[in-house]
Design brief:
Oligomer: heterotrimer
Largest sheet of chain B: 4 strands, antiparallel
Radius of gyration of chain A: 21 Å
Largest interface: B-C, 65 and 59 residues
Radius of gyration of chain B: 25 Å
Number of helices of chain B: 5
Distance between the termini of chain A: 38 Å
Shape of chain B: rod-shaped
Strand content of chain B: 5-15%
Chains: A mainly alpha (about 400), B alpha+beta (about 170), C mainly alpha (about 450)
Number of domains of chain A: 1
Number of helices of chain A: 15
Distance between the termini of chain B: 14 Å
Structural class of chain B: alpha+beta
Helix content of chain A: over 70%
CATH topology of the largest domain in chain B: Alpha-Beta Plaits
Number of strands of chain B: 4
Structural class of chain A: mainly alpha
Order of helices and strands of chain A: HHHHHHHHHHHHHHH
Shape of chain A: globular
Order of helices and strands of chain B: EHEHHHEHE
Helix content of chain B: 40-55%
Number of domains of chain B: 2
Strand order of the largest sheet of chain B: 2-3-1-4
């Protein structure tokens, strides 16, 4: 935990210094990049639990417990979103452009309002879903953390109707899934696609949320592998469960690549300059094409070939390395999408220690959120999924 | 079949009883010649612990042939006239990825079918010995071989595990 | 799954459907065959007189033939979804309906595959599309989306048929073992001498897994390729990046509706109630809600981005769709595809067999109109106001459409009385899944 705080402090300090003294544009752009990336991780990971619950999967118990821990980042993400707008001069290139009528949509108050509302809705549904899940988990395994004990005491005092709670849990899970698609699409259009306000792609919203699922599942694999391998807790995942989440990760690697190709082939083939400028700048012209190829190889080609093998998906250490590499690749992909909009005439890729440092700061925030969640609810690491199955099936 | 051995087919009515009989048979010196079942049973598979099938290699080879074949076909046909059509380059890897992909799947499936047929040695038109028509309905069969003098022992083994016995060679 | 089922009861229920049919069956077959002949007659008329007997003309050159093509390919997709994708997800509700769904796929692809031939004027020249060496050294242009179609649809037909047949092998053995005389001989050949030996199962299950793993990306790619027939053009309303996943979701949406349309009568007539339970139908219904939401999301996104783009042609194209000459078709599409399926969120609706059947028909109608709106709606009203024009299908087109629908149902009806329409093997597997799996 202390390491997490140290990372946060380092990142924060560097950000402040660069923002105030050095290059505020660069600092805020790094902030935007990392805000999007780490929020997507949290949103995608929590989606796993909501999805598994909605389809009544029976194999995912311990993985869902770990996935829910990422919800602790939701309030942090919301605050980070608000802070983002302090740097609006640097992250919204459309502020300085003639929008020919799009100002109705692309203006700071409206964008702030709708995105804030969307994130509140998404995070609200996610946390409500989590609350209901915690009821069944804590009822089943008891609570030893302070917040958990307080919750359990409250539920003991006013025992709720379990059947109603179970059905509301399902409803909130489904609402989270719906909000996920809509809100992440909106955020993708507003914060990423709009950095080049004259370009558009209808699939961009869906592309954004598919990326979030991809890295969310990757983070889930990394976290559950690390917990499984560690001796300091009783957390255990079966080999076939690792295999299944590995297969899902592989599947979303393909989905992400497919959604990229679907945009690319349509724009390439139509060859309409209004659309191709964006794509050419990022994938074919120097200097960004180097980054594009790196992303393509690191996030699609390599994982596709490597993850075809069955055995590697059952090895937590190998999967941790692979998933971290892929997630770094997607971080670079975020940079690839945003970078050219901020640095139109770059001769070389302006990627450096500032972006990495701010990223490490955000990583510290995510880690702190997840760790504090497990400190509040340590019983989530104690298995017990067989019992949960019974409790939930009674009410389904 | 060696002259001094005898084969006995035990016919079970559930996969669990067949699987436990297999488990116990593997601890004896008797060999399991064949197991018949109407469904691909995981329980029986766990009891037999068979090696992984090699069908996958046929599929992989087929897929690789298809991938390069698809691109090659598209490239060959385009380079014969080298016409620029619709402003697209003569050799255009972006759209040809689709052709390559479809051919990959097609040839991988051909490889798969070839692998399945060759590995499972289908079609086979001779009825195997001791085959009971209920094996495609609701019975599981375990054919074990023992030496002629152990025949009664094996018969009793099957009976205690809940099987019917069939020693008639249905050839 | 239902615990009152046993292996024997499954076998008996399914094999009972293969007994010699009554006269009412043959009457239905005759009616459907008459429809097929009528469609064939219309097509022959078109070949003899010319493509002009259809309603396609300047500027709408793609009419009901393309609409039907996309419609039938779409329906084929959920068959593969159920048999392949759900196999990978190990969803137990797939097993009772997998066989009929795969059959639906094969026959839908066959029906769809006729339409590229039908919409050609000079059908006898269709071999130009094949890459065979010829004296003029002419080759097809593999950069064309139409060639992608040729490759993709042929692959899909081949793979689906092989998957379908392979899946039937254990069941064909079951029929063989209970048959006598000529029937026994026929099924002995068809079942390839299947003996249920473990050695065979070992390779079979592996091969089946690879079939499913290959069919899944194939399904997604095939309807993406069909969508790119439109999206790779520059026509407003067609040239948009969302088409590939939008079409795939729409295909599964219409296909699942057709699954219900076929299964519900099948289950009643063949007394499959214990095998194709209401829970299975409910699972299909819930999936329809999901795909309906995706389709609705796509509609909304297209409209939003059309406005956001501030491209006057895009804006006008979408305005006209909703409020122009084909506004009725547009609102039928939106209502039937996105609003009506939301009724399935209510358990009472989901568990009512009659409502499920009606909703499935409505969704199919809606999805047909969606292809109408997309295909006709874009081409009728694109860049130059001077070139705008309307389209009405001609009687010949209606005749061919009736023929195609009859062909599909004709093949399906023939199949269900001569081959097992429920996979006995897979349903037996689910009996044990419930017993030996601890969770």
């Amino acid at each position: 935990m202390k390491i997490a705080y140290a990372l946060i402090a380092a990142g924060f300090l560097i950000f402040i210094v660069v923002a105030l003294v050095g290059n505020p544009a660069r600092a805020w752009q790094a902030y935007l990049l990392n805000f999007l990336f780490f929020s997507a991780i949290a949103q995608g990971a929590v989606l796993f639990s909501a999805l598994m619950h909605t389809v009544k999967a029976r194999w995912s118990g311990p993985l869902s417990d770990v996935a829910e821990s990422f919800a602790a980042f939701f309030p942090v993400s919301l605050i980070l979103f608000v802070i983002l707008f302090l740097g609006q001069q640097h992250v919204f290139p459309w502020l300085h452009e003639d929008l020919h009528g799009k100002e109705v949509w692309l203006n700071v108050p409206f964008m702030f309002g709708r995105d804030l509302f969307g994130l509140c809705l998404l995070y609200g549904f996610g946390l409500a879903f989590l609350y209901h899940r915690l009821y069944f988990t804590l009822k089943d395994r008891g609570a030893s953390g302070p917040f958990g004990s307080w919750l359990l005491a409250r539920w003991d005092q006013h025992p709720p109707d379990e059947a109603r709670l179970a059905s509301r849990m399902t409803v909130f899970g489904i609402l989270y899934l719906l909000a996920f698609a809509l809100v992440l699409s909106l955020v993708g259009y507003d914060l990423v696609m709009a950095t080049d306000p004259h370009w558009y792609s209808t699939l961009f919203g869906a592309y954004t949320f598919v990326k979030a699922i991809f890295i969310g599942f990757g983070a889930l694999i990394v976290l559950s592998s690390l917990l499984h391998l560690s001796d300091r807790n009783g957390y255990h995942v079966e080999e076939n469960q690792f295999h299944d989440i590995g297969k899902l990760f592989f599947a979303f690697c393909l989905v992400w690549a497919d959604f990229f190709y679907a945009q690319f082939v349509v724009i390439w083939y139509g060859n309409i300059p209004e659309e191709t400028a964006y794509v050419i700048e990022r994938t074919m012209a120097a200097p960004w094409n180097v980054l594009a190829w790196t992303v393509f190889i690191g996030c699609f080609l390599a994982p596709f070939l490597i993850l075809l093998n069955r055995r590697i998906k059952t090895r937590p250490k190998a999967m941790t390395v692979i998933c971290l590499a892929v997630m770094t690749g997607i971080w670079l992909e975020h940079y690839l999408l945003l970078g050219p909009a901020f640095h139109h005439d770059a001769q070389s890729i302006p990627l450096g220690w500032v972006e990495a440092a701010v990223g490490i700061g955000f990583l510290g925030l995510l880690a702190a959120a997840v760790i504090s969640y497990f400190q509040q609810f340590p019983e989530l690491l104690h298995g017990g999924d067989v019992n949960r199955l019974k409790v939930e099936t009674i009410h389904n | 079949m060696p002259a001094d051995t005898v084969s006995i087919m035990g016919i079970f009515d559930s996969e669990n009883s067949a699987a436990s009989a297999i488990d116990r048979l593997r601890e004896t010196a008797w060999t399991i010649e064949q197991v018949h079942s109407p469904i691909p049973s995981h329980t029986i598979e766990d009891a037999l612990e068979p090696p992984t099938s090699r069908v996958g290699w046929f599929t992989l080879v087929g897929g690789i042939i298809g991938f390069f074949g698809g691109f090659s076909l598209a490239a060959f046909t385009s380079l014969r006239w080298s016409l620029i059509v619709g402003g697209k380059p003569v050799v255009a890897l972006v759209p040809w990825f689709i052709v390559g992909f479809e051919f990959t799947v097609l040839f991988a499936v051909f490889g798969n079918v070839l692998g399945l047929i060759s590995q499972a040695r289908l079609p086979r038109f001779e009825t195997p010995p001791y085959y009971d028509e209920r094996f495609s309905a609701d019975r599981f069969g375990v054919l074990a071989r023992c030496s002629a003098d152990e025949q009664d022992e094996l018969t009793r083994f099957f009976e205690t595990n809940g099987a019917e016995i069939n020693t008639d060679d249905k050839l | 799954m239902e615990q009152t089922l046993t292996y024997k009861s499954i076998d008996n229920t399914v094999l009972d459907t293969l007994t010699p049919p009554r006269r009412s069956y043959w009457a239905l077959v005759a009616v459907l065959f008459a429809g097929v002949l009528f469609g064939a007659g219309c097509w022959t008329y078109q070949i003899l007189v010319g493509i002009g007997v259809g309603g396609q003309n300047n500027p709408v050159f793609w009419g009901t033939y393309l609409i039907n093509f996309v419609f039938w390919v779409g329906i084929a997709h959920s068959g593969t979804l159920i048999s392949a994708i759900l196999h990978l997800f190990r969803a137990p509700w797939r097993n009772p309906i997998a066989r009929a769904a795969e059959t639906m796929t094969v026959f839908a692809v066959c029906t769809a595959g006729l339409f590229p031939f039908i919409h050609l004027g000079r059908v006898w020249l269709v071999y130009y599309m094949l890459p065979i060496p010829n004296q003029r050294t002419l080759w097809p242009n593999f950069q064309s989306p139409l060639m992608f179609d040729v490759v993709a649809i042929s692959t899909y037909l081949t793979v689906s048929s092989l998957f379908w047949y392979t899946g039937m092998l254990p069941d064909l053995a079951t029929i063989r073992d209970r048959a006598h005389g000529l029937r026994h001989k026929i099924f002995k050949v068809l079942s390839l001498g299947w003996t249920g030996e473990y050695e065979i199962w070992r390779h079979y299950t592996r091969g089946y897994l690879f079939f499913a793993a290959l069919a899944t990306p194939l399904v997604i790619s095939v309807h993406s390729v069909v969508s790119w027939d439109f999206a790779l053009s520059v026509v407003p309303g067609w040239h948009t990046t969302i088409f590939a996943p939008y079409f795939v979701a729409g295909a599964i949406h219409s296909g699942l509706a057709m699954v219900l349309t076929l299964m519900i009568p099948l289950r009643v007539i063949f007394k499959y109630e214990a095998i194709i339970t209401t829970r299975v139908l409910e699972a299909v219904a819930k999936t329809i809600v999901f795909t309906g939401l995706i389709v609705g999301f796509a509609y909304g996104t297209e409209i939003f981005i059309a406005w956001y783009s501030h491209n006057p042609v895009e804006v006008e194209s979408f305005r006209w769709r909703a409020f122009g000459d084909y506004a009725l078709e547009y609102w039928i599409m939106v209502t039937c595809n996105t609003v009506i399926p939301l009724l399935l969120l209510f358990k009472k609706v989901r568990t009512s067999i009659r409502l499920l059947f009606v909703i499935s028909l409505i969704v199919n109608v809606g999805m047909w109109y969606e292809r109408f709106v997309i295909i006709i709606g874009s081409v009728a009203h694109d860049f130059l106001p001077h070139a705008w024009g309307l389209y009405t299908p001609s009687l010949v087109e209606f005749g061919i459409m009736i023929g195609a629908f009859c062909l599909f149902f004709f093949l399906f009806v023939l199949f269900v009385k001569h081959m097992p329409s429920v996979s006995m093997t897979e349903v037996k597997e689910t009996l044990h899944e419930g017993e030996s799996h601890a969770g």
